[in-house]
Design goal:
This protein is of the alpha/beta class. Helices cover about 30% and strands about 10% of the residues. The protein has 7 helices and 5 strands. The protein has a 5-stranded parallel beta sheet, with helices on one face. Helix 3 (about 105-115) packs antiparallel against helix 4 (about 120-125). The protein is globular and about 35 Å long. The protein starts with a strand and ends with a helix.
Length: about 160
């Protein structure tokens, strides 16, 4: 079981925050400073050059950046050794439903777990929000394909099928 971490900068409504819901359910740990993010974690970063793939399954933890990307100092996270971008997926959250790549943190973490072979756990964490399981329904085909890829290059090739 891969531990989950989230850096949260309090820029979103705490009542709607999916990371806060995951923390309350005991599924992840929130850190409030970038310096508190574990150095050996796999950092979910949409600006990363490599896509997340099953080849990353031996990571020590997964960290989501639950913050406004408009104000995040990307230079502060660019030094992480393991940074991965998620492949193409559709949002199922109420704010961005049907929009490509506009995932909430819970969707991003669930997608990561699914791709890394923890499909049941992905469904479990999505159970923290009323619309969560819809994310797996909307993305069933791409997630299953990404989970069979041998590496990042193959994930990118599979991604082209859904663009």
């Amino acid at each position: 079981m891969i531990p989950l971490v989230a850096y949260r900068d309090n820029s979103c409504d705490p009542r709607k925050c999916t990371v806060k819901k995951l923390e309350r359910a005991g599924f992840l740990r929130i850190v409030k400073k970038i310096s508190q993010i574990p150095r050996n974690t796999l950092l979910l970063d949409p600006t990363a050059e490599k896509a997340l793939s099953p080849a990353d399954k031996n990571v020590k933890s997964i960290t989501a950046l639950d913050c406004s990307w408009e104000v995040l100092d990307t230079g502060a996270v660019s030094s992480w050794r393991i940074r991965r971008a998620l492949p193409f997926l559709m949002a199922a959250n109420p704010v961005n439903f049907g929009r490509p790549c506009k995932l909430t943190s819970i969707e991003a973490l669930a997608a990561s777990l699914y791709i890394l072979g923890e499909q049941e756990r992905a469904a479990q964490i999505l159970g923290c929000v009323s619309w969560g399981i819809r994310f797996l329904e909307v993305n069933k085909e791409p997630l299953e394909l990404y989970a069979t890829a041998k590496d990042s290059t193959e994930v990118v090739k599979f991604q082209a099928l859904f663009l």
